[in-house]
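Lab notes, practical 5.
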Amino acid sequence: MSGVLVAQLFALLVAATATVTDWRTGHIPNWLTFPPMLAAPIVHGLFSGIPGFTLSLIGIAACGLVPYIVFKLGGMAGGDVKLLAALGAVLGPFVGIEAEFIAFIVAAIFALGRLAWEGKLLRTLGNTGRLAVNPFLPRRKRREVPDEMMSSMRLGASIFVGTLIAVLLRNPLLWGL
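Output from the prediction step:
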């Protein structure tokens, strides 16, 4: 078994564990995200030298930057950001970004389905359209979103599905599992 496949299977284990903890508690704990984020560059460096170490660090930055910005704007939880950064460290920037992109698509599809199920889809899309023009309006005409109209969604499962799809796309031999 190649080292890349071992890293990918480890990333799946981390993402699966995060899914369970997120489902049960609504949190993705630091004990799950920090060790891979710290150990992956070292392990990649031991097996692949400076390029492996560097790619792992780039993976942390590439997979963590946009989620961190979204977190600072109040649109994402910190555990999700740390999980994505840890997966970037383990998978590297290329597979990590693929997994993250797929995870966001999965989350968007799930969110649309959930809103439709709850009968809130059309109203939410209308509000989203009105809010999208806020930056182009004078401050006095901008529309605020009341707290009761906001909703949240746990991303652990979407991140796991995105990671699984990205790993399967990179390893067609695993399709027979």
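Observations recorded by the TA: The mean pLDDT is 91. The chain has five helices and no strands.
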